[in-house]
Amino acid sequence: MKRNLSLSLEPSVYQTLKNTVPSGQISPLVNNLLKEYLKKQKEQELNAAYQDFAKNKKLKKELAVWDEVVGDGISDNE
Questions:
Q1: What is the DSSP letter of 71?
Q2: Alpha carbon 32 to chain centroid, angstroms
Q3: pLDDT band at 28 (very low <50, low <70, confident <90, very high)
Q4: ∠ Cα 35 26 10 (to 5°)
Q5: Are 56 and 48 in contact (CB under 8 A)?
Q6: CA distance 41 to 66
Q7: How many Å apart are CA 55 and CA 32, to the nearest integer?
Q8: What is the pTM of this model?
């Protein structure tokens, strides 16, 4: 389902857009640019979270303990 959105652009940006992008192609262009921007934002957020995790020594210690007990009580015969 498509949604409408009003944008405010600087006059020079608007004029260049109208002169450069074919009629009927501005919406798809803006949509694709926004999707790419949002994807990059999400990647940056994930990278920051991974870096925070990598610096968290307390969490690493706790995960190491859990890694040691993974599989406890599970035999190869089951």
A1: T
A2: 14
A3: very high
A4: 95
A5: no
A6: 32
A7: 35
A8: 0.65
